[in-house]
Write a structure and sequence with these properties.
eight-stranded antiparallel β-sheet, six-stranded mixed β-sheet
């Protein structure tokens, strides 16, 4: 039968008690509690005798939870909680008085339990007693307790006066959580709050709509929008409620659907109490504000505030005023926000507690803590940015004087105050200096006092300047007072004494300069100290000297602006460190201290990286004034991250080859290219960015990176004293956070294994540490996108003087090799492998030769060789002085490989010589093949008796007279210096021939159609046994051969990469094959070659 049709319900001894929204009807009897459905009258729940109660002990024994899922039943000394959905129950003890009548009431969050003349309050969720026991209770309801006694008097107690504040989170009962969860939420620990809410839901036997709604809010603020919407829908399915609709609206707003959010929010008004409407209107206004309609939202709140003000509702007016203030702050209108904050202070409750603000902060994550301080801070910053520093100081002083102790103890606020004080003092000091220099003393007397009002740590300088300004205005007593104060603040500062004495002179109308004073005390004072102008002159001189060694243009890592030397000098002179340095030069100039401080200020950080495309140029940065103003691209972000890292390391300046070189001006470009080696060597630190090395990095990633294959990065690896590698996420390579990766054994060993040189050479590199061939071998493992860069990147490593000139192409490499041969006389640039020949048993060979060669023959051979000119480059050919040994017959031997063959050559005057090469040499006599013994004077080996100062030639440039056996007619050039007793011409000739007979490293040359020769690159060094003592005049052929350059540049298959290689490089011992992946910023290098082709 349907109760809604008005049919009676037979309860059989039960009495109906309480109707709830979920259409349950409980009844009680001495035998327990039974719950009926108001739809059809069926019994939904029967406690049996579990909650049997005596009527004499119970007044109002039943109460429902707000969701209608739990029924609380009072019994003797306990409360029993029945879960309707699963017929389970739990109980907890209440008053000690077991026999007094019991009444309970529930407002959905708390249970008030009366027994006798006392009432206790219980948490519906934790089943724990909260607050203190209240006596003289008559009735219990909602958020108040009606308390009385038998005399008929009733008093109303607000639950907020009885319970801790954390049980009230504002307005209607929207946010219902445990104390632990509330604490986490109010501290904005959203991840932990989500976990706690999930735990509460797990422990609940049935879904609880308000917990789902609360978790939806938290997830929305965590940007987990899909999960938030899911929770919101489930909350509304379990039970429609205002908090459910609000949570759903916040989630939709997070999804980017403001219109949907406002529509769903309106449904919250359908399920709210009449007294909650105003608070919901306020929440909707905030939602409108967050949706982007800020003016509309502000108008709504202003109307609510006007109504509350007309009703003299101070609590509501306070609430609306606080919300309006934060809305204006979020708009950036601090001038409007600050008066509202001040008004709210006057309206604040005595306990300064406003639970609705807590509800708003939880729902929308708005913070109302320290609002006045935040508003004033922003106002200070705006005024400062507009150049109104003195006005900003007034507000700053108000912050310092009016902030309560709790805010003052806040670390972020204290740090902001300290930083802003320093900024204002420096700005006011600088502004005061400008006005004082322009004789605008009134303005100076506004700037200096404002700075002094902030109690700077070093007030002496400001006092001296204010003293001068006051003296210029004729305020003699005030000026003298400032001068005395400066002396007390810094007794060691001569400026203070000078100011003090100057003001005394002015006070007594003695306006002569101190140097012209007749006062012995003043004159003596001047002699004891260095004037500021003298100190500044010394600092300027040292600064200019240091800046000459610095890059031409650097980035100011604070402002992001490009600065030349003049601009850096200007910034230095405006810096506090400059002023402190000047003022510290009191009795004598300390040049060493000046040099250390100036060098520290101008220290710069160099950037090393592989170019990745259209990197930001000098012109692009100049156009936007700062690297911080560049468009948001990955390459611009790379540059910005470099600057941030340089600043984090405590440096002022940074240099990048992308934007710090004006490549449109050839003179600047050339100067930069030739100076780059020194700039890296003198840098405070070089930061290497490995764009293709993923995070976290692993051992070997560095050597496989693209950075290790680029031509310019060779010197960037070797030269800096301090080096630091970063992976693609700007995290230290291998997680090594030490200050210098050149001190990391693991990283240095990885590099040493990769480039085949000792790690100590990498750590403390000098151009003299490596032989020429070793440097060229290292260069051959690198590539460049511009052909000339193959040579230009080696300028510093070879200490070369060649002048860069883009457009000369392969001639750039020729110029470099020519300079190497000319400077060092070393034609081994044509053969990178091999060791110096051995020159042993010289005396024995000389003795044997004396018995075989007459003096005439020996001197003839000597003069033939001695007439050979020095090696030189011309028309991209090396004119090589050498002893030539012709190949008479050539054959192929067994034991070769698929890539190389073993040849045996029968050589005139020498015998058989075997060598290995990948070249296909003709076995016919169509081409002339020779072995050449390079005859470069300063590398002829030991045995030279005369050496030249400034010229390493071991023999004179004059022929020996065959008619003289003592060399008495030989005239040595004046620039030679004898270092040993002179020997006769015959002996000298025999010594040279003996050296010629020793084994030597030979070049294998093939004559070309035009008569010049080209080297055949052998797999291994070719060591010719030499002629021993079987030397005749006919066996010696001294010639100058034209040899094509031994090195060339080769383009990659795609034409975007250029390598330095020797001729026939595919079989060169140290040539490398570089294989690039188009999709990866990495490269693998392997010894050898593939099909004789240079690959990308």
């Amino acid at each position: 039968m349907s109760l809604r049709a008005g049919a009676p319900l037979t309860t059989s001894g039960y009495s109906a008690s309480l109707l709830v929204p979920n259409c349950f009807l409980p009844s009680r009897t001495n035998n327990g509690v039974r719950v009926y459905s108001t739809y059809d009258g069926n019994v939904l729940f029967d406690s049996g005798t579990q909650s049997s109660i005596s009527p004499s002990n119970v007044v109002t024994p039943l109460a429902w939870s707000s969701d209608g899922q739990q029924l609380f039943v009072a019994s003797k000394g306990k409360i029993i909680c029945f879960n309707i959905s699963n017929s389970s129950s739990s109980e907890w003890s209440i008053h000690d008085n077991q026999y007094s009548a019991v009444s309970i009431a529930c407002n959905g969050r708390f249970i008030a339990c009366k027994s006798g003349k006392s009432v206790s309050l219980w948490d519906c969720m934790s089943h724990k007693q909260i607050g203190s026991i209240i006596t003289q209770v008559a009735d219990i309801c909602g958020g108040y307790l009606a308390c009385g006694f038998d005399g008929g008097k009733i008093t109303i107690h607000n639950l907020r006066d009885v319970l801790p504040l954390n049980y009230f989170v504002g307005g209607p009962q929207l946010v219902q959580v445990s104390g632990k969860t509330l604490k986490s939420w109010t501290q904005s620990d959203l991840t932990n709050t989500e976990m706690l809410l999930s735990e509460e839901m797990t422990s609940a036997s049935t879904p609880i709509h308000h917990l789902l709604a609360n978790r939806a809010l938290v997830r929305a603020h965590l940007k987990h929008v899909a999960l938030a919407i899911e929770d919101g829908k489930e909350s509304l399915r379990v039970q429609p409620s205002p908090i459910g609709y609000i949570a759903m609206a916040v989630a939709l707003l997070g999804q980017g659907d403001p219109e949907g959010a406002l529509r769903i929010f309106d449904l919250a008004f359908h399920d709210c109490e009449f007294g909650d409407i105003r608070f919901l209107l306020l929440l909707k206004s905030i939602l409108v504000f967050e949706s982007g309609n800020q003016e509309d939202a502000i108008t709504r709140v202003e109307l609510l505030g006007a109504r509350a003000n007309n009703d003299s509702d101070n609590d509501a007016t306070y609430l609306y005023t606080r919300v309006l203030a934060i809305m204006y702050m979020k708009k950036g209108n601090y001038e409007r926000a600050i008066p509202l904050i001040e008004r709210a202070k006057n309206l604040a409750p005595e306990d300064k507690q406003c639970p609705p603000l807590t509800t708003i902060s939880l729902i929308f994550q708005w913070s109302f803590i320290g609002l006045d301080i935040v508003a004033q801070q922003r106002q200070c910053e705006i005024l400062y940015a507009e150049g109104c520093t003195t006005e900003a100081v007034e507000i700053l002083l108000n912050i310092i004087s009016t902030s309560d102790e709790e805010i003052q103890r806040n670390i972020s606020t204290a740090d902001w105050i300290a930083d802003f004080v320093q900024k204002c003092v420096m700005t006011l000091d600088r502004n005061g200096d400008k006005t004082l220099d322009s004789a605008n003393h009134d303005d100076a007397l506004a700037q200096y006092p404002a700075a002094l009002s902030l109690s700077p740590a070093s007030p002496a300088g400001l006092l001296v300047k204010r003293s001068r300004a006051r003296a210029a205005k004729g305020l003699w007593e005030d000026a003298l007072q400032d001068a005395n104060g400066a002396v007390k603040a810094d007794p060691s500062n001569p400026w203070c004494y000078e100011a003090n004495m100057t003001e005394r002179l002015m006070l007594s109308s003695l306006l002569h300069a101190i140097e012209q004073s007749h006062d012995p005390e003043i004159r003596q004072l001047r002699k004891n100290y260095i004037s500021p102008s003298q100190a500044i002159t010394a600092i300027d001189s040292i600064s200019r000297e240091i800046l000459k060694s610095c890059p031409l243009v650097v980035i100011d890592v604070t402002t992001g602006c490009l600065c030349d030397a003049l601009e850096r000098m200007r910034i230095f002179k405006a810096d506090a460190s400059f002023k402190e340095l000047v003022s510290s030069m009191t009795r004598k100039l300390d040049n060493e201290r000046i040099r250390q401080l100036v060098a520290r200020f101008f220290a710069y950080v160099m950037f090393s990286h592989a170019w990745q495309g259209n990197e930001p140029s000098l012109q692009e940065v100049s156009a936007v004034k700062s690297v911080w103003g560049l468009p948001e691209t990955s390459l611009n972000e790379k540059l910005r991250n470099f600057c941030k890292e340089a600043r984090r390391r405590g440096h002022n300046w940074a240099w990048s080859d992308t934007c710090c070189i004006d490549k449109s001006t050839s003179s600047i470009l050339n100067q930069s290219l030739t100076s780059m080696y020194k700039w890296y060597a003198d840098s405070a630190v070089t930061l290497v960015f490995l764009a293709g090395v993923a995070h976290p990095s692993s051992a070997g990633d560095l050597t496989r990176s693209l950075w290790m294959t680029r031509a310019w990065t060779l010197q960037e690896l070797l030269v800096p004293k301090v080096l630091f590698f970063y992976d693609s996420e700007w995290k230290p390579y291998l997680g090594d956070t030490s200050d210098n990766h050149k001190e990391s054994p693991e990283i240095m060993q990885e590099l040493a294994d990769a480039i085949k040189i000792h790690h100590g050479t990498i750590t403390t590199f000098s151009p003299d540490d490596l032989a020429i061939r070793e440097k060229l071998r290292l260069a051959s493992t690198r590539s460049a996108t511009v052909e000339e860069d193959v040579a230009y990147s080696l300028i510093g490593i070879f200490k070369s003087d060649i002048r860069p000139h883009y457009g000369e192409g392969a001639d750039a490499l020729g110029h470099l090799l020519e300079e190497i041969v000319t400077r060092f006389g070393d034609v081994t640039v044509l053969a990178w492998s091999g060791k110096s020949s051995s020159y042993n048993k010289m005396e024995t060979h000389v003795t044997e030769l004396r018995g075989k060669l007459s003096q005439e023959v020996a001197l003839s051979i000597y003069n033939q060789i001695n007439r050979l000119p020095p090696a030189r480059f011309a028309a991209r050919r090396l004119h090589l002085p050498c002893i030539v040994f012709s190949v008479r017959r050539l054959s192929i031997q067994e034991g070769g490989s698929s890539n190389a063959k073993v040849y045996r050559a029968k050589v005139s005057g020498v015998g058989n010589v075997e060598f290995t090469t990948a070249d296909d040499l003709t076995l016919e006599k169509q081409k002339k093949i020779v072995f050449a013994h390079p005859w470069i004077r300063h590398i002829r080996g030991p045995g030279s008796e005369v050496t030249g100062e400034g010229d390493s030639e071991s023999d004179t440039d004059t022929d020996l007279d065959p008619n003289s056996d003592d060399g008495s007619d030989e005239v040595a050039p004046s620039h030679f210096v004898a270092t040993a007793p002179r020997v006769g011409g015959y002996v000298r000739a025999l010594q040279m021939i003996a050296r010629l007979g020793q084994p030597f490293n030979a070049l294998l040359l093939v004559q070309q159609p035009n008569g010049e020769y080209k080297r055949v690159a052998a797999e291994y060094e070719i060591v010719v046994p030499g002629l021993a003592t079987d030397i005749t005049r006919k066996s010696i052929q001294a010639k100058v051969l034209e040899v094509l350059e031994g090195h060339r540049t080769v383009k990659s298959a795609r034409g975007n990469t250029i390598y330095l290689v020797p001729d026939n490089f595919e079989v060169e011992r140290y040539s490398y094959t570089c294989v690039m992946d188009d999709d990866k910023d990495s490269v693998t290098t392997e010894p050898g070659s593939v099909d004789g082709q240079a690959k990308d």
